[in-house]
Amino acid sequence: MTHLPLDQQMLDSCAALLLLLSFAMLSQRRIVTLVNLYALQGAVLAAATLLLAWRTGEGHLYLSAALTLALKVAFLPWLLHRLIRRLEVYWDTEPLLNVSGTMLAGLLIVVFAFALAQPITLLSSTATRSAVGIAVSVVLLAFLMMITRRKAMSQVVGFLSMENGVFFGAMSASYGMPMVVELGVALDVLVAVLVLGVFFFQIRERFESLDLHHLESLKEHE
Amino acid sequence: MELLLLLALPIAGAALLGVIGAGRRAPEINAVFSLGTFLASCALTARVIRHGDLLLAGEQFFIDPFNVFLVTLTAFVGLTTALFSRPYMRVELDHGRLTPGRLRLYHSMYQLFMFTMLLALTTNNMGLMWVAMEGATLSTVLLVTLYRTPASLEAGWKYFILCGVGIAQALFGTILLYVAAGKVLGAQGVTALLWTHLDAVKGQLEPTVLALAFVFLLIGYGTKVGLVPLHSWLPDAHAEGPTPISAVLSGLLLNVALYAVVRSKVLVEGSLHSQLPSMMLMGFGLLSVVLASLLLWRQRDIKRLFAYSSIEHMGIATFAFGMGGAIANFAALLHMTVHSLTKSSIFFTAGHAAQKSGTQLMDRIRGLITLSPTVGWGLMLGSLAILGVPPFGVFTSEFLILTTAMRTQPWAAPILLAALAVAFAGIFSKVQPMVFGETNARRLPHAPALLPVFTHLAIVLLLGLYIPPYLADWYRAAAHLIGGP
Question: pTM here?
Answer without folding.
Answer: 0.90
